Amino acid sequence: MKVLVDTCVWFLLLRRKQGTVLSADEQGSVTLLRGAIRDGRVAIIGPIRQEVLSGIEHWGQFVRLRAALGRFSDETLTEVHFEQAARLFTLCQSKGVGCGATAILLCAVAIERGFELLTTDRGLKRCAQVLRAEGLMR
After folding, report:
1. Which end of the chain is less packed: N or C, by CB atoms within 10 Å?
2. What does DSSP assign to residue 118?
3. Cα 41 from chain centroid?
4. pLDDT on residue 20
5. Per-10-residue mean pLDDT for the chain, 138 residues long?
6. In angstroms, what is the C-alpha Rg of the chain?
7. CA–CA separation, 107 vs 89, rounded Å?
8. Cβ atoms 82, 105 nearer than 8 A
9. Domain tally for the chain?
10. Are residues 61 and 89 in the same domain?
11. 85 and 57 in one domain?
């Protein structure tokens, strides 16, 4: 099964400062990402690619990260994904859980494609929990 990777996990692998100590959850996510990369199971969407590459001040670092992410093609997004994301946002909001636009788009893509979602973000995990409870997400 493909793994749709959130920005925070890419940051842990590609952009964290050297010597940063990872929590057990973060280390587990990095290990899962490395395994997914090795097995060819990584999925990414354009908004995540943009977030990972944003804010890099040094051109050389930008080029290296762009090349690292260049191994992975963006999943094609259609109006169905954005409409589903809007519906899922409303559902989560009705349960008292707020979701960012990119986070809920990840959920929509994961549901539609049957992908596993890899994140360390607490807010996104709460959204996914609501969607699982509703029988929409694995």
Report:
1. N
2. E
3. 13
4. 86
5. 97 89 95 98 98 96 96 97 98 96 98 97 96 95
6. 15
7. 10
8. yes
9. 2
10. no
11. no
Q: Which residues have C-beta within 8 Å of that of residue 87, sequence separation ≥ 6?
A: none
Domain extent, residue 125, equals 79-113+120-133
The verdict on residue 55 lying in a domain is yes
What does pTM read for this prediction?
Answer: 0.94
CA nearest neighbour of 106 among 37, 68, 92: 92
Distance CA 21, CA 76 (A): 35
Distance of alpha carbon 60 from alpha carbon 73, whole angstroms: 22
In a domain, 74, yes or no: no
Q: What is the pLDDT of residue 100?
A: 95
- What per-residue confidence (pLDDT) applies to 138? 84
> Residues 34, 54: one domain?
yes
Say what the pLDDT of residue 17 is. Answer: 81
- 64 lies in the same domain as 95: no
| H runs (alpha helix) in the chain | 7-14, 24-39, 46-53, 59-69, 79-94, 101-113, 122-133
The size of the chain, in residues, is 138
Q: Which tokens hold the place of 112? A: 């539609």
The count of C-alpha atoms lying within 13 angstroms of the C-alpha of 22, restricted to the half-sphere facing its C-beta, is: 18
